[in-house]
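Students often ask why we bother predicting the structure of a whole assembly rather than each chain alone. The short answer is interfaces. A chain on its own may look different once its partners are present, and contacts between molecules only exist in the joint model. In this exercise we take two input lines together and write out one structure for the complete complex. Read the inputs first and try to guess which parts will touch.
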Amino acid sequence: MDILTLFVVMPVLTVIALIFTKGQNNYRLVTLAGAIVQVVMAFNLLYQFLQLKNGGNTDTMVFMRDLMWFEPFNIHYLIGVDGISVLMIMLTSIIVMTGTFISWKVSDLTKEFFIWLIVLSSGVYGFFISLDLFTMFVFYEIAVIPMYLLIGVWGTGPKEYSAMKLTLMLMGASALVLVSIFGLYMNSNPDAIGLAGLTFNILEIKQVAIPESAQIIFYPLAFIGFAVIGAFFPFHTWSPDGHASAPTAVSMLHAGVLMKLGGYGIFRVAMYLMPQGAHYWVVPFMILAVIGVSYGALSAIRQTDLKYINAYSSVSHLGLVLLGLLMMNEIGWRGAMLQSLSHGFITALFFALIGIIYGRTHTRIVSKMGGLMTVMPVIGALYVIAGMANLGLPMFSGFVAEMNIFVGAFEHPDLFHRIITIIAVSSIVVTAVYILRVVGKMLMGPVMDEYKDLPPITWYEKVGTFVLVLFSILIGIFPFFWIDIIDGAVGPFIQGII
Amino acid sequence: MDLGYTALILLIPISLFLILGFNFKRLKEPVSGIIGTVGLGITALISYYTAYSYFFGGMEGAKIDGVYQKVYAMNMVWINFSDTLHMDMGILIDPISAMMLIVVPTISLMVHLYSVGYMHGEAGFTRFFAYLGLFTFSMLGLVLATNLFMIYIFWEMVGVSSYLLIGYYYNKPSAVLAAKKAFIVTRFADFGFLMGILMIGFYGESWDFKVLADPAFIAGLQAKFGAAFMGISVISWALIFIFIGGAGKSAMFPLHIWLPDAMEGPTPVSALIHAATMVVAGVFLVARLFPLFSFMDDGAALQVVAYTGAFTTIFAAIIAFSQYDIKRVLAFSTMSQIGYMMLALGVSGYAGHDGLGFMASMFHLFTHAMFKALLFLAAGSIIHAVHSNYMQDMGGLRKYMPITHITFLIAALAISGIPPLAGFFSKDEILVAALHDNILIFGVTYLVAGMTAFYMFRLYFRIFWWNEPNYKHTPQEAPKTMTIPLLVLAFMTIISGFIPFHSLVTADGAAFHTHFNWYMVGASVGIGTFGILFAMLMYKKENKLSTRFRAAFGVFYIWSYNKFYIDEIYMFVTKKIIFDRIAAPSAWFDRHIVDGAMNGIGSGTEWISDKIKGLQSGRVQDYAMFFVSGVVVIAMIFWYYL
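Now the answer. The structure tokens for the assembled complex follow.
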């Protein structure tokens, strides 16, 4: 078994083990064991990858493996990774592990809850390792469908409505992706490079160069299709409702990992394979992305529910990911990838903390809480740390990512890019407003009588949140380490674009 | 000697933060006080040693041909953008950072020691010392930065430490609001700062201070980017943006509104952050980029600095006349004095005696840090004794608090420019520099010198003389941990005027000669004395004179008392316009229009399927009719076309 396929197999094994397990306590132990093995595997992969790269390997993709899956349409199970996929896999494994810790006390249908969570993660891993468009799409669907059940069954509030909305919008988006994948397939002229037939292989399609007319048609489909899952204005409305209804671990996975599929897909499929289409469409998409950045932040100011605030904050921060990608230069892309990672850790931390607070106060309405810092100092301090990380304080990952995006954006000297950049940069002020508003109202101020004695933080909540803080700081203090890995992956891609 | 040890200057304070921060529930009061103070003491010793070896001890490369150089104790690439453009982390020692290596640890150490007494019995004692460690780390990182981005990084860190310390009493709503306001206002200013940094990065292709201070490099920029926008070159625009950041941190008009509210923090914090160190970061930033400011032909950025400083200095002085909260009087006085430093930079040239303004500004920064920290700590000791911030509750305190009284008087005389105290020398240099450059700015500066003397002695006489109110508890002198810092700072206030700044801290690094302008000495001491005497007349004994003056000024007094309603204007813009007219509609738009459209598609689909579901009725007759009608329609089409 090769090192990558193991990432898809391991969740399946965990699910099988879970099916044969009995007892509330054993469910979470099995899940946790599986999640920890995944983390170890992810770091092993990172280590092996670095060994290979330091050994002078210059291949675009490494650890490749190619199996024929469906011959008539030339669909392969083709896998391989570059630096970006390795980091995304690492992110996923950590979010799954911390999510397991945070949902330690899920008591309804525990077994099924964990099973669907693991199925979701297996889809995500598969998505990040695939190099065949069709296989990639299949994994994408595997990742999206469990969301419906996880929100619809274990959610709160108008959960059926939210689950349905989320699923329908993501399905609609994946229809667009599917059309564009077939468009690419049909235009992958095999004669040009002496292939046997049409192909879904990303690396091969790159070599044939899709005709410009086809790129102009299929690029926006692929871009919007992937961007919807990255909360692209105006197709972001599934995200606030989805988050608000989802249970904590699902929100973490959703914001931490699932929404990253969007930026990753745009990078790997839409822009890489259709560079001319990307240049053709850059202006309208950039306008929408920057609207998302500042509009998400402004909307977050007026929200009253903690989860809505963070959902809109995600719209704003993922808008920056798209903006970084649309800058179409190395620094912008590096920033976009860093922002994906950073947002993954920070937002997962936020949702974990919201879950922890909600579990104690039974409300998420900011104005109904006050003085929680006095009652729960550790949780309060963690929330302040999460807030500071989110508003781009240096020494946390968000700062590094945002600065790369802004510097990348500033490399375009024309007026249009300048205006877009200034609007995007101004979001750092608005972010501070909505973060500090919550901190000031909910954590500080006089203690409220009904929240006089809330239980302190438990060990599993500590582990879950501390790990996330740690990674945000690791990226924030040692950005060069991560940037080296990302640059190695972005380099070969950018040459095909400019 | 290897300069690696300078890293300890940053590593010790951050370790203090981590040690105290992680154990904030476990450590008992005296233990954390001792850890914090001793740790800071060691930092201070290393800093002094570094500064000494830079100025006098022959640090390698420090002085070449009598000119002080920029020494990189260390520098590593942190994030790489291109061959010339990278964010670095390092330690830069040059005259101004070496000077700050004396100011920051000294004040911080005194504040640590003072807080052991002042914060005694507070629940968050350890947390307080942890925050102080974080602040000291950030501030030292800011002054030792080797490049613009590193300054920006520590700039933000300083902002957060300030936020945490202002909001230290987090159960008190006014403190929380003040903390939030300080952070958001400075963050807004940092937006300008960041734009400026990005512009410098793009057009100048470097953030490194050695490069940015190189005259040849600046001449190259000058040639490359002439007048670009509104007759001002793009580099000057970048500098103006950077200055917005500096103005936010240094509470220059119109970004000053956070500073008076920041007095909600504990008094030692006000002394450390909001009087001596953080608020002068803006001055430091302009000084750091001074070659760039100075060599731009259009000089626009420097003019902005000069006029902003001049306006702020008189604006704040007018407000200080009418405030009753003693900490707020000191806060406005700080604003006014920072305005002095700014305008001194603004009127300065670069080389030789033309650089007098620069030297005077740094000199004033140094002396002001000493006497203003002293004033705040003395005010803290007074507040500690009478449990009130308002001068109405004070009076006659000279009998009860002799040490506080004497040290406060020394500091008040120093800020009023009475020789031979520190403030006299630095203020005098500023007046000379202003007179050389611009008569209008000189006029403002001179006037403010008198106003400063007046409001400081209004404060002094109201606190220590005037009429004794009925104290519930007899006020007592503060404990030793609080009076020792007062005495140390008073000593510094007396001697620091004699430091030969003109041969140590100058714009181009070379020494130059200054000589007393005796007319100026007479004029400045004269107006200072006049201010003091006038205050004495009005406030030494309780009398009706001040009430009569208040009535005579009428509406001007009310404006001054209400700080010219600037807060209300901001409140209107943020609350009524941004919050209610922009944020609320965008939230509504999202829920009702964008999401409404999505829901509309959903319910539209449902509606259509509801309407057409009747077609699948299952009745054979219906299907037969559809079939027949279909055949008829197709037949008609064929018939028509064929």
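Check your guess against this: Strands of chain B lie at 63-64, 67-68, 71-80, 86-93, 227-229, 232-233.
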